[in-house]
């Protein structure tokens, strides 16, 4: 059953139009180079309409893989495809889902000690990005792209190499994400030890003390030091690009939906990294930066 006729799942005509338009998304990211307004994470702002960080992140990221899977299961029936989709299609769908199970659910809801609030404006843009991207890639995997193993003929080696690159990027992404999480965990442990010492001192002095306001660790920032953080400030971004470059290799360099996904991610994440470098420089100073660049050592 179609949720939205001709869109979820998409008709071929609508899908082709969306895929063609989606290639021009980088043009709209020019706005990001012109403003530092990005009220998410370390640059979040105080606002009455903010969305709690963990809930906001999960709800803007999770619809992507959910829509992709929905399209994979419903589009073949809508197009009259009688045979099962090739295993390569389902493998790519599983890899996409695995990435977002981690990114959209496991990381924010389970692994992250805390997350800064998210303003509704970037939340809406991120949600729209996920939905459009899911229709683009989901339509290709679900019936408007390869529909039999004959369509994948001669690509087995490329699929294997792409999977290895994807896995390396995914693991690198998780590793460097965890380095950032460790900063928060270390701050929380330090806070707990300090509070425990204060409690012991109060017990020894036997004097009533004023109630303590527990300090949040949401806004604790330090210079990460391990892994690729030694040479660049945003290795988790670079690893994610490597991940989707491998994914593009699997699909084939002529696959427009996956190519657009990679280029669109790079277009919207690069300005955040460059602006983030300026934030680190202002907060920690040139000496602590130790010549680290944002994305490419010695370049940018």
Brief write-up:
With 300 residues, the chain is an all-alpha fold. Helices cover 66% and strands 0% of the residues.
Describe this structure in words.
Helices cover 66% and strands 0% of the residues. 29% of the residues are buried. The protein has helices spanning 12-22, 25-28, 30-34, 53-79, 87-111, 120-144, 156-205, 235-251, 256-289. The mean pLDDT is 92. By secondary structure, the protein is an all-alpha fold. It is built from nine helices and no strands. The longest helix is centred in the middle third of the chain and has 50 residues, at 156-205. Helix 4 packs antiparallel against helix 5 and helix 7 (156-205) packs antiparallel against helix 8. It is elongated and about 80 Å long.
